[in-house]
Amino acid sequence: MKKYLGVLHQKKIFTLNDVVGLTNNVNSAKDLLQNYKKQNLIIQIRRNLYSVCDLATGVTVANKFEIASNISSSSYISYRSAFEYYGIAHQIYYDIYISSCSRFNSFDFENIQYFYSKSIIDLGVETPSMDSLVRVTNLERTIVDCIDRIDRAGGIEELVHCLSLIGYLNENKLLEYLAVYNKSILYKKVGFVLEPFKEKLKLSNDFIELCAQNGKKHIGYLTDKNESNFFHNSWNIYAPKNILSYLEQGNNELV
């Protein structure tokens, strides 16, 4: 019965259909899964999603990013969880944001909460060359997403700290995602947040000006009205008085 275990270890994470492909029989596949579970050779993550266990330690082989990327055929890591994947998150989190075209119920597994978020646009989702089981928004898409939903970025302070650790952004990609979102307020927010970092991120004055022109029509708030209590006339936006002040505790060079 263990003859399929090597193949499953190669897959690392799999579904019932994957096992049916090995046994050529649904009932045999179900029996195999039950048998392997009883022997602690595999673990069920959620309905119809499994991972193999390390034979020496019994620990789940698939990590949280691989699990998140395989919950559905369209699922991918997003918002602040993408920053965490890239190693630039300022805080430690025990949850993960997953965007998907198909809805699923949020769930807990091994002390990690997996949160569903509706996939808004399709662009900017990549599979890193060294992580074939992972799907994640690239940095430019992650930044646009997080500025659009600062609550899902972990808040403005977390977002600013993440930006301080990035050395370059492709402004053409930023503009591509902004065009797909097609929201005036988002142009305003992106331009306002990125302007203090423009030299560090290698962003042109033309990019900042384009954001300003596309976002100038209406007065907006960067975050909630309590936090965004200072009016920045040049951007026609209410926001914290100095977002770079969040870096002071870390003695960041941008402050």
Structure summarized in a few sentences:
The chain is an alpha+beta fold and 255 residues long. It has 10 helices and 12 strands. It has 3 domains: 2-52, no CATH class; 63-137, no CATH class; 149-255, no CATH class.
Report on this structure.
- By secondary structure, the chain is α+β, with helices and mostly antiparallel strands.
- It folds into three domains: 2-52, no CATH class; 63-137, no CATH class; 149-255, no CATH class.
- Helix content is 36%, strand content 16%.
- The protein has ten helices and twelve strands.
- The protein has helices at residues 5-11, 16-23, 26-38, 64-69, 80-85, 139-148, 156-164, 171-181, 184-194, 205-215, and strands spanning 13-14, 42-46, 49-52, 76-77, 95-100, 107-109, 112-118, 125-126, 136-137, 220-221, 230-232, 237-239.
- It has a four-stranded mixed beta sheet with strand order 4-5-7-6.
Question: Which key features would you list for this structure?
Answer:
255 residues, alpha+beta, 3 domains, 4-stranded mixed beta sheet, 3-stranded antiparallel beta sheet, 10 helices, 36% helix, 16% strand
